[in-house]
Amino acid sequence: MCDLEQPIDSVTLPEGLAWEDDWFAVGTVDADTLAIGEPAYHQKNWSYLITDGGESLLFDTGSGRRSIGPVVHRHAGVSTRAFPSHMHFDHLGGVDAFGPVIVADLPMLRAMAPDNVLTPTEEAYLGHYETLSPPSFPVGHWVGIGDVLQVGLRHLHVLHTPGHSPDSVSLWEPGRNRLYAADFLYRGHLYAQTPGASLPAYRATLETLFDILPEDIDILGAHGQTEGGTDDMPRLGHADLAALHAALCDLLTGPPHDGQREINPRMTLLYSKASFTG
Ligand SMILES: [Zn+2]
Fold first, then answer.
1. How far is the CA of 53 from the centre of ligand 1 (A)?
2. Residue 87: closest CA among 164, 4, 3, 180
3. Based on the structure, what is the number of domains in the chain?
4. Is the distance from CB of 90 to CB of 46 less than 8 angstroms?
5. Which of 15, 154, 249, 273 is a Cys-bridge partner for 256, taking CB atoms 3.0 to 4.6 Å apart?
6. Distances (CA, A) of 271 to 87, 146, 158, 195, 230
């Protein structure tokens, strides 16, 4: 396994990002939206703090290598609600810093939460990648797929976006023409080789998104991996969705196999034989 962390003085932040402390970097998406990054972590996670009118929502709680709680509390207060995009370990790391969290109302997640305390299964959490044990956390609100989460006057539509994982959700904010795509789409190696990943599901989700999203959609992903590049927040667009869709259509005409394919200079899809089904 590669080193999980690198010294922050070896990390180059582009213009527009600033160090918050000795681990987190922050960037302004707009006046009410803060991107919180972990560029010294090998997966280069980005979480998003969405605020309005004294209310706030944190979409993903970071890797847990350091607690994201203090950063969020400094910028948005202690009443911030947390909403993990899916149960992989690197999106749940700081969940303990928040009260009862918002969880997508999917049968597989309900099954992990007897008495409304959710403990992800290893297949959903994948903690063995970094020798981590899953947290248990209280669920405060089961939000339905297709429901709208309100943060002040902002409206965030909860979309089920399986492909990378069966429990993945994204947030679509028509008012700001933005998709918070989490691990469905980000910069770097797109993981579709992990348990639960499905290339047919990836393709079907993309086709659903094409019906919903405008051509000039602004997409923010949850990882910003670059090869030797700077550590900017991962912003992608409709062309990236289209390029991924074309690659999936091509791959799915052939036999199942393990491999990887460069989608474009921003993304490479990793996949396994098992991910050709499901
Ligand atoms: Zn993931």
1. 31
2. 164
3. 1
4. no
5. 273
6. 19, 28, 26, 10, 26
**Beta strands 235-236; 259-264: pairing state:** unpaired
Distance, CA 110 to ligand 1 centroid (Å)?
A: 19
Query: What's the CATH number where 38 sits?
Result: 3.60.15.10
Residue 15 maps to a domain: yes
> Could you count the other beta carbons within 10 Å of the beta carbon of residue 180?
28
pLDDT in tens, 139-172: 999 999 999 999 999 999 999 999 999 999 999 9
Q: In the block, which residue shows the tokens 């903690």? A: 127
Q: In this predicted model, what pLDDT tens digit does every residue of 128-143 receive, in sequence order?
A: 999 999 999 999 999 9
pLDDT, tens digit (0-9, with 9 covering 90-100), for 2-26:
689 988 888 888 889 999 999 999 9
CA of 165 to the centre of ligand 1 (A): 7
Question: N- to C-terminal Cα distance for the chain?
Answer: 28
Whole-angstrom distance, CA of residue 193 vs CA of residue 274:
8
3 is a domain residue: no
Is residue 1 included in any domain, yes or no? no
The SS3 call for residue 90 is: helix
What residue numbers bound the domain in which 77 lies? Answer: 8-276
Cα distance between residue 253 and residue 233, in whole Å: 34
What are the beta bridge partners of residue 82? Answer: 58
Distance 11 CA to ligand 1 centre (A): 23
Residue 2 covered by a domain: no
Rounded CA separation 145/161 (Å): 10
Contact indicator for 27, 15 with CB cutoff of 8 Å: no
